[in-house]
UniProtKB/TrEMBL annotation, chain A:
<comment type="similarity">
    <text>Belongs to the binding-protein-dependent transport system permease family. FecCD subfamily.</text>
</comment>
<keyword id="KW-0472">Membrane</keyword>
<feature type="transmembrane region" description="Helical">
    <location>
        <begin position="160"/>
        <end position="184"/>
    </location>
</feature>
<feature type="transmembrane region" description="Helical">
    <location>
        <begin position="126"/>
        <end position="148"/>
    </location>
</feature>
<feature type="transmembrane region" description="Helical">
    <location>
        <begin position="101"/>
        <end position="119"/>
    </location>
</feature>
<feature type="transmembrane region" description="Helical">
    <location>
        <begin position="321"/>
        <end position="340"/>
    </location>
</feature>
<feature type="transmembrane region" description="Helical">
    <location>
        <begin position="292"/>
        <end position="315"/>
    </location>
</feature>
<dbReference type="InterPro" id="IPR000522">
    <property type="entry name" value="ABC_transptr_permease_BtuC"/>
</dbReference>
<keyword id="KW-0812">Transmembrane</keyword>
UniProtKB/TrEMBL annotation, chain B:
<protein>
    <submittedName>
        <fullName>ABC transporter substrate-binding protein</fullName>
    </submittedName>
</protein>
<dbReference type="InterPro" id="IPR002491">
    <property type="entry name" value="ABC_transptr_periplasmic_BD"/>
</dbReference>
<dbReference type="InterPro" id="IPR050902">
    <property type="entry name" value="ABC_Transporter_SBP"/>
</dbReference>
<keyword id="KW-0732">Signal</keyword>
<feature type="domain" description="Fe/B12 periplasmic-binding">
    <location>
        <begin position="21"/>
        <end position="279"/>
    </location>
</feature>
<feature type="signal peptide">
    <location>
        <begin position="1"/>
        <end position="18"/>
    </location>
</feature>
<dbReference type="Pfam" id="PF01497">
    <property type="entry name" value="Peripla_BP_2"/>
</dbReference>
């Protein structure tokens, strides 16, 4: 009882922090905008019509409306998506080292995107970036489908085989990217490399909407799988004895992960580390019960991504850092510090 | 009354002309803007703009394919000049919707493309006559060089090599600034028949090309030991006439990044003077 109360209070704290971080993300950027203008612009968009005395309010409002807000929202949705899929993979594979990359979705998406960039002259002008986005999504799904098919036999789905298939697909994808890099010209090569570092620079209301649709759909479905994931932690046969259709559950969890990560990667490129680390952080604090782990992971993932993107935008302004580099640069040392602190607790 | 309005209008328009806030994305573009005399109106450049020195002191907007929308807005530019590859596309669209004049010009790797680029950019920044003068000077130099090179009885075969990260060198083929530079300097590029862009070649094909001169960008070969390494450690390169006669020429690498710029003919003059020492005295006279 005590543990679940602690978990709930952690979720509540995170739920309070998320809007604060969103606001922080909207209020800061390369163009300095006063807090009064920020608040006015937000209220205007919520349907209240306030007027501002500020001289360049119309430009500021435009920046908040069409640049910062969609970007911050996209960051939070992608953070949540990546973190949830990390938690799902770690639960499914019963392995704390699992992350979405393990089922090939990221490397498959990278191959898709690289191919689209290599053949960008094929697409009609102006559609090249859509081609990249769609190719990345399809590449991610295709790789995951292949991993799943290899892992599934008439006797059921073996996560161990899937793990090995994932390694094979990742290696194959890396070779494919290498080949594409070799064939690409200078500009394409740089585009491919930048794509792989991740960026939220392409945020628009359209992709915020798409991403929100996916995340909300997943959020509605997932609570049903929390107990399944808890049962899977005991082992496949134990879960079966508890009356769970293990193979069906595995299939759905993989589909959910592939779609979540596929869309996230398609919109923002490769953003590592969030999926691996956020579920860990949450588990260290509130324990492995997926009923609390999943929502807390989503919230923390969103918060961290918004803050990481803020760093990416501010540190070398007017230029910006690739977000994947920021998440790893900040996240990895913090995670190491946490591991050192909690060493005894984890091993004991 | 009308007259004052007219005068006021002229003053205002010249003022607005003078107050252009330009951002340049691309080394060759930045160089061109300085050559057109609007360097002072630049408020920021991209990371490849390293020439002239004052350009490198301006704020950097990052790499031209992953521009930061808000970072650019924060500099309040009136004109953003960049290559056709500049992006991402939604950033370009948003900048245009904010009434910022965004111009994407194809990267020039040939002389015709360079001439087109110069007249277009000169018009965009209101320096039409300056542009015409620059074009005339470039053409005059080019013609003079071509005339001087007629004295060459047997043109040299050469390869342009870059060596990224100490690995095996890449050779410049067609569609590269280096290829244009060599053509201007009267050096034959055997790689141009089979290679497009920059490619790694097998040692054997390098031997088959039998270059009599090797051209390298200076930033990769600051000291002679790295040059020696390039030649002695590459099995194929060692066998070429160029390596045997130790004929290696370095060129200023800032000239060739992001296409060719207005200094290309001067660079070609310098390269030709080094490649054909017999013409040295004739060529070096050119300013």
């Amino acid at each position: 009882m005590k543990r679940s109360q602690k978990a709930l209070s952690v979720i509540a704290v995170l739920a309070v922090w998320l809007p604060i971080c969103l606001l922080l993300g909207i209020a800061n950027g390369a163009v300095p905008i006063g807090l009064a203008d920020v608040v006015t612009a937000i209220f205007n968009n919520l349907g209240f019509s306030l007027t501002s005395t500020s001289d360049d309010f119309s430009q500021n409002q435009l920046i908040i409306e069409s640049i910062r807000t969609p970007r911050v929202l996209l960051a939070s949705l992608i953070g949540a998506a990546l973190a949830i899929s990390g938690a799902l993979m770690q639960g499914l594979f019963r392995n704390p080292l699992a992350d979405p990359a393990i089922i090939g979705v990221s490397s498959g998406a990278a191959v898709g995107a690289a191919l689209a960039i290599l053949f960008e002259s094929v697409w009609p002008a102006g559609y090249a970036h859509w081609a990249t986005t769609i190719a990345a999504f399809l590449g991610g799904l295709a790789a995951t489908w292949l991993v799943f098919k290899i892992g599934t036999s008439p006797y059921g789905t073996s996560v161990a085989t899937m793990l090995l298939a994932g390694i094979a697909i990742n290696a194959f994808a890396m070779a494919g990217i290498g080949l594409i890099n070799y064939m690409a010209d200078d500009n394409q090569l740089r585009s491919i490399i930048f794509w792989q570092m991740g960026s939220l620079g392409a945020a628009s209301w359209l992709n915020v909407g798409t991403m929100a649709l996916v995340v909300v759909a997943v959020a509605l479905v997932l609570p049903r799988y929390a107990n399944t994931l808890n049962a899977l932690l005991l082992g496949d046969s134990e879960a079966r004895h508890l009356g769970i259709n293990v193979d069906k559950a595995k299939k759905w969890l993989i589909i959910v992960t592939a779609v979540l990560v596929g869309v996230a990667v398609a919109f923002a490129g490769m953003i590592g580390f969030v999926g691996l680390v956020v579920p860990h952080l949450v588990r260290l604090v509130i324990g492995p019960d997926h009923r609390f782990l999943l929502p807390a992971t989503a919230l923390l993932g969103a918060i961290l991504m918004v803050l990481a993107d803020l760093c990416a935008r501010m540190v070398i302004s007017p230029a910006e850092l690739p977000i994947g580099i920021v998440t790893a640069l900040i996240g990895a040392p913090f995670f190491m510090f946490l591991l050192l602190q909690k060493r005894q607790t984890i091993s004991g | 009354m009308k007259l004052t309005a007219l005068i006021l209008g002229i003053i205002l328009s010249t003022l607005s002309q003078a107050q252009q806030r330009i951002i340049s994305a691309g080394g060759a573009m930045t160089e061109l803007l300085y050559a057109l005399g609007v360097g002072k109106q630049l408020v920021a450049v991209d990371t490849s703009s390293i020439y002239p020195e004052s350009a490198s002191k301006l704020p950097k907007i990052g790499y031209h394919r992953s521009l930061s929308l808000e970072g650019i807005i924060s500099l309040q530019p009136t004109l953003l000049l960049g290559s056709a590859e500049m992006g991402p596309p939604n950033v370009i669209q948003q900048l245009q919707s904010l009434k910022i004049n965004v111009q994407q010009l194809p990267t020039a790797v040939t002389m015709t493309a360079l001439e087109k680029r110069i007249s277009k950019v000169a018009k965009l920044v209101g320096q039409g006559s300056q542009g015409q003068a620059l074009l005339a000077a470039i053409r005059a130099n080019q013609q003079q060089l071509a005339k001087q090179l007629k004295a060459v009885k047997k043109p040299l075969k050469g390869v342009f090599l870059v060596q990224p990260g100490g690995r095996s060198p890449m050779v410049a083929g067609t569609g590269t600034s280096a290829n244009t530079l060599m053509a201007l300097a009267g050096i034959l590029n055997p790689a141009a028949t089979s290679v497009k862009g920059y490619r790694q070649l097998t040692s054997e094909s390098l031997i088959a090309m039998a270059p009599e001169v090797i051209i390298v960008p200076d930033h990769m070969f600051k000291n002679s030991s790295s040059l020696d390494k390039l030649i002695t450690q590459q099995p194929g390169l060692k066998q070429t006439p160029a390596a045997k006669n130790n004929r290696v020429i370095t060129v200023d690498s800032s000239l060739l990044v992001g296409g060719i710029g207005p200094r290309i003919v001067q660079a070609a003059q310098k390269l030709a003077a080094e490649a054909y020492p017999e013409l040295h005295s004739a060529i070096v006279k050119v300013p």
